[in-house]
Amino acid sequence: MKAVIAHAAWILCALLLGCAPASTRVYADYNPETVPELQSYRTYDLLPPPEDDFRADDITEERILRFVESTLNEKSFQKTSVNPDFLVGYFVTTQAKITGSSGPSYGIGFGGGGTAIGFGFGGSGARVYEEGTLVIDIVDRQLQKLVWRGTITAPSAPGIDDPEKRAEGIKCAVERVLERFPPQ
After folding, report:
1. Cα–Cα nearest to 172, from 148, 158, 154, 159
2. What digits encode the pLDDT tens for the residues 5-30?
3. Most buried of 45, 60, 98, 127 (most Cβ within 10 A)?
4. d(C-alpha 11, C-alpha 15), whole Å
5. Sheet of strand 86-102, all strands in order from the earlier edge strand to the far edge
6. Which helix (H) or strand (E) segment is 91 a member of?
């Protein structure tokens, strides 16, 4: 299980490096009727970490939570453990994806007098890659109900061994998700 968690965290860091590939998708989901309530929120607290299957390693978790807090603070939200307006949680997932492409096809043929010789070449390829997702949830504390969910999904970018680059990728991902909260 720890290997799966470490792998998910590595993929999360790798996929978010740069945070701007064209294949990066950012979504927010909420009930449009609740926008005035969401805009009235001023205080928050953090939910406990997710279960092991969706939890990042300790270093990645600390980065995610630090950047969630700093991003919300920049938006003038205040962290408090006493009756916060909303609670913030997160989880990470990875999924293997397959993409296919067709290559060129070539053919040569000879014929005549009832005999034929032929040669053909065709190509197609499939590539398997990891796609990671960071999900940030906003839960109304009084209602104990999910009221907003933001996600960022992108393919992994292998070979990121610089802790500063990993941290920057996570920061960018958190900021891109939370720029949609609260909805306007």
Report:
1. 154
2. 444 554 455 445 556 566 789 999 99
3. 60
4. 6
5. 25-30, 145-155, 124-140, 86-102, 43-46, 78-79
6. strand 86-102
- Give the C-alpha distances (Å, rounded to integers) separating 10 from 2, 41, 46, 97: 12, 33, 23, 16
Q: Contact at 8 Å (CB) between 163 and 145? A: no
Burial bucket for residue 101 (CB in 10 Å: 0-12, 13-18, 19+)? exposed
Q: What domains can be seen in the chain, in order of their start residue?
A: 2-178 (3.30.160)
pTM for the full predicted model: 0.75
Burial letters 60-89, b for 16+ CB under 10 A, else e: bbebbbebbbebbeeeebeeeeeebbbbbb
Q: Are 182 and 148 in contact (CB under 8 A)?
A: yes
Q: How confident is the model over 44-66, as pLDDT tens digits? A: 999 987 776 666 788 888 999 99
Return the exposure string of 143-180: e unless at least 16 CB atoms fall within 10 Å of the residue's CB, then b. Answer: eeeebbbbbbbbbbbeebeeeebbbbbbbbbbbbbbeb
